[in-house]
Amino acid sequence: xxxxxxxxxxxxxxxxxxxxxxxEMLAKNAVEKLAISRSESERxxxxxxxxxxxxxxxxxxxxxxxxxxxxxxLAEQMIIIDIExxxxxxxxxxxxxxxxxxxxxHAIGNLHRPVRVDGDRIVLPIQSDGEIEMLRRQLGQIxxxxxxxxxxxxxxxxxxAHEH
Length: 164
Hints:
single chain; HSP40/DNAj peptide-binding domain; Alpha-Beta Plaits; 2 domains; four-stranded antiparallel β-sheet; 3 helices
């Protein structure tokens, strides 16, 4: 019989305030990962098992959105959220000017996808590489002004942005 741990809040994040504690717990082999998809990161209630087989029930407050590295339990072990990587398109403007930026933003906006601006990269989730070709066609005459590639990474949308 496995133990059920009920998690009712996010304690912190290993990339921020709990970085030192994470290193300590990792050295003790007391870190467990709870793998979830990006779509599951918005769920307030779910039951899953960690990579070490611990049964976890999440019952989170309204408005909670889980982030990669969030700690949902911290006692004898640390249970962290491990958002699964997904396929993304990465768009870079070769020669940024306001006209190109507006037209690229308009084309991406027409896809109705969440985005993240990461330095000089615009990142958005895709299902297949065929969507990269579709985006190139939508860009029309300015397609040569951008570089578009695919990657596999943990996607977190831009703070304050909404998906529609």
